[in-house]
Amino acid sequence: MPDPALDDPPAHRADLPFVLGGCVRGRPQPRSILSVGIVLAVIALPLRGLFLATGSSMEEGFMLAFPQRVLAGDVPNVDFLHLYGPFSLHVLAGWYWVFGDTLESQRVFGLLQHLGIIFALYALARAWGRRTAVVSAVTVTLLVLTPIGLSALAWEGAVALGLWSVVFGVRAMHTTGRTRRFALVSAGVLVGCALGYRPDLVVALGLVHGWLLWQGRAERTWRPVGIGVAVGSVPMLVHLAMAGIGPSVRGMFLEPVFDLRPGRKLPSPPSFSQIDGALQAVAEGPLDAPWWRVPALSANHQLFLWFFVVIVVAIALPVIAHRLRRTSDGAATRLTVLMGASLFGLGMLPQALQRPDSTHLAWGSCVSFALLPCLLVELVPRVAPRAARHAWLIAGAGIAAVMLVVNPYFTYRYYLLQSRVSVGNKPGGFEVARDHRRFYFGNQALQSSSQAMMDDLDRLSQPGERLLVGPADLSRTIYSDAAFYYMFPELTPATFFIEMDPGIADREGSRLADDVASADWLILTNFWTGWFEPNASSIRGSDAPNQVVAEQFCLVGNYEDALVLLYQRCAVGDGISPAGIGIGTQRRADFERELAERAAQG
User: Which of 184, 203, 490, 530 could form a disulfide with 347 if both were Cys (CB 3.0 to 4.6 A apart)?
Assistant: First the structure.
């Protein structure tokens, strides 16, 4: 059924959307320029704030540090722990080689990955007209841009590549000849590249491309797709040759699935009465939560409700699209787009379920939520024919209302926060700097302690010395402020565990104690000592690394009441400073007492 809300039904237009086989050559129409301009304006408003925003000191930190190690000749899974595909690190290393390894360069790359997601969904939703495409693009912008920030994480890159593989895969169903073969090969290449970023995206990619190949089985579409996948998998094959099968399988499959999960998983569904995730609890604390005066559910209630909405939307979209496709005539081409894209969204559902905090719920739902307007535009003419002309407007109002009720804290509120920073109404993060390198922390205490420590380490250290960064209590490797490795590129990381995770770095028999013993300098922080989640991260592991600190290292600096501790390997004959572990233990006891008091107060 054609959609009267569109300027013209796609089947009757000369300017077919790209996903439906349209040609991209020629001068763009003014309406297309206006539509893309609206999306870019929505993206641009909070952009300055996002470049000044607080960074995640481990996740963004290792996306700054890991490519530096790749450029230095280190191999992921062999020389440092890396739980995802290696291709993102090699691409980012090339980006740094060309544009420099600054925080701004990394965030520009992260922005490009976000734009890849946003405009892939724009291209898919364009099958329903420009207006619907704008609504879908703005929806996904609110879910991936401001809540997650501009960190160049592998997941966003993988989703962008995967979505464009869907665009080309669906396009192939509406083209013929060379154009079709090119689209099929392109889809395959993008699948291989996406798996090189995140192998765990195989479920989503398998669902959508398995369905597309089944639809085109009579034309033997699997051959050009297979050629494309083989080409796109070359980076992964090169990595397997360099790192070896055993380390690669252990680092990308066994450790993320079996070792990491017990210490990172959160209850599903999320707790109704409290926030389960430690980082989420900090962000939603009374001193840290951004301004929001619009009536809304509490953060923990939003997460609880959002969890179920994510599941319902992800499952309902392909089911409804399949049923509509069986009974439709004029809209069948559009429903092919919706069916394929919604299968990709369904395959992303495990990402939301494994750790249902706001980040993973946004990651797991961004595609399905962005496709909701397309489904509504299909349904409105069937349910209310008189309103068909304004179906896109009803769809936009509907998804806006859903997000206002379900997750406003994690969409509208963060968009408003970064927009206020952009226009100078609110300051950004707290900057620490060394030469041309900078990073942004979340409060003044973190900034002042980190900057003072960095100034001392800069003065005392020598290029080529070995540095290890970790929590003050190395028997609980809950997090690592890996950004400090980025700030000191002339110091060699002394540990395999640049990224630290519970159940991996702190397990009995790990190499962490030996890594500590090999270091010249230690940066141990109490930033995350109050980290407690309902999982195995609360269980202390091996105490051997702490013993090495106590026996072989002298305390050089104590900053902001042990918020940061700087240690140097003791010279022969030096006395051991008893302050190190003692200060860390006292700081931990203070955090635990404060946490208990907050829990008692509700």
Answer: 203
